[in-house]
Amino acid sequence: QVQLQESGPGLVKPSQTLSLTCTVSGGSITTNYYYWSWIRQPPGKGLEWMGAIAYSGITFYSTSLKSRLSLSRDTSKNQFTLQLSSVTPEDTAVYYCAREDWFGLDYWGNGTLITVSS
């Protein structure tokens, strides 16, 4: 069974860079043909797909976040990470990591609430 666990700071100040890590167990992030995604849900709003890093290491970004978002991975730790720069209160959300294949998102982490506030 694949399990994903997000870890992050909880509270970030405006203009800072948010860094989140997703630790994967029960499966390798280099296994063909999975994609490892970040999704967020602001309070009272719907889910927003942010981006993904493929089994090959290729990255994909949401058009709206591309200028501020960077995804990377550490295959030795079976982790992938998100960095979102210049955060504002509008980036306050529950952030999820998930596994994605051709059919959609099949395994999700529990999510972590990130609040952007001074």
Oligomeric state of this protein: single chain
As residue ranges, the low-confidence spans are none
DSSP summary: helix tally: 0
Please outline the major beta sheet: 7 strands, mixed
Distance between the termini: 39 Å
Helical residue percent band: under 10%
Give the number of DSSP strands: 11
The amount of beta strand, in percent, is over 45%
What is the structure about, briefly put?
The chain is built from no helices and eleven strands. The protein has 118 residues and is mainly beta.
Topology at a glance:
Layout: E1 3-7, E2 11-12, E3 18-25, E4 35-41, E5 48-54, E6 59-61, E7 69-74, E8 79-84, E9 93-101, E10 104-108, E11 112-116
Parallel strand pairs: 2-11
Antiparallel strand pairs: 1-3, 3-8, 4-5, 4-9, 5-6, 7-8, 9-10, 9-11
Core attributes:
mainly beta; four-stranded antiparallel sheet; 118 residues; seven-stranded mixed sheet
Detailed description of the structure:
The chain has 118 residues and is mostly beta strands. Helices cover 0% and strands 53% of the residues. Strands 2, 4, 5, 6, 9, 10 and 11 form a seven-stranded mixed beta sheet that branches. Strands 1-3-8-7 form a four-stranded antiparallel beta sheet, with no helix packed on it. It starts with a strand and ends with a strand.
